[in-house]
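Hey, does this match?
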Amino acid sequence: MDIKSFLELEAASSSEDSLDLRSLDLVSSYDSHLMCPICHCPFVQPVRLDCDHVFCQQCLGSAIITFRSADANEFPCPSCRTPTTRISMSVPRLLVNMCDEIQVRCPSAEAGCEEVLPRGHVQSHVQKYCGFRLVPCPDESCGKMLRQKDLQTDGRCLHGYCRCERCSEDVMERDFEDHDKVLCPSLEATCNDCGSTMRRQELTKHAETCSEVSIPCAASQYGCKSKVRRVDIGTHEAQCPLISIGPYLEAQNTRLKQLELTTRHLQQRNEIFEDGMASIRASLAESARAGNGARSTQGGDRDRARTEVDESTEMANAFSSHTTQYLLSLHESLREEVNQMSHALTDLDTRASMTIMNECLRIKEDMAHTNAALNSVRMQVQWLMNPRLHNGNRANVMRANSTSNDSSRTSLTSTSVPGPSSNGASSILGSLRPRRPSDSGREGTKL
């Protein structure tokens, strides 16, 4: 197909009401060879040039209009600048199938459609099956748009207003269901954590300040999996060991990101150098071919041309060898820098692991000392309680002995006879008096 026919076909296809597949949100990854060099998106209706470079049909049409001269029958390839006169629409079917199998989201995802499907099926999904596509209102006098899922079978317009009985607010008929179930200010809802009752509109704001809501620890990004009530989060964070080493981990993460960025820049520089080396080799080969052609067409002055070609070839070979050596040495130095950065990343990871392990060991030792101190206090309390129990038992025994002694004295007094035998009676009472417990029988406790 020549350039003029291709431009006419492109103008006809662009005028159709079709979906722009390059603006879709991609879900799955794709091979870099499936990317158009102009728009940097997967191929859409790919076409091929004589130099075997492939582009999107619309992208190539825009490039031809931009770079082609007014009445020229050829234009340079956007990739290699090779003059091209014909464009082929025949592209390997495998390439088209691979582009059509890329997973994308529905264009109406922001409106609520959650469909994820291959890119080749998006056009039919939007036209036939997507309920969130905007369509004209069935009432021609309305002139507004609505979602396809909101179309009524009777063809009536949904852009009229109706009044809510609870809040006395005028709501559009197509939004009345959402208003009646969710958005009405008079609706009440109960917090699942604290049991408070409030308006449904205020439930989200209440959840941000409710003291009974379980929230993750501030060190969750460092590995803490605890979820504590908002009122107790301060106590947990004061005891969480990951909080104390959080700044160190954050600094290490920042350093790792900087090293990764530097590595990426070095890789890009390496690719640029490799591309430059390839272009230098191509230019040298082209100059050698031009020298050979000039040598064959000169005829009579063959010896002089041969000498000049040999000299230019030697200079080109010398330049090529020096350039190749320089680029190879630069490549080796870049590779060494990348290896050094890899070793540095490994070293940082090892240091971070050792720091975390040492911190955990210190915390475990502190807990062991705390448990030992607690056991010692418990034993001392038991030791202090034992003497009090023994003293209480001894007081009860002495009280019982005193009661029995008093009763025996009363009986002896009632049976005694007055007269000169009083001294004898007193001697008898003295002999019957209970013996006072000796000091050796007393129990004492010393701390």
Notes: Residues 412-433, 435-447 have pLDDT under 50 and may be disordered.
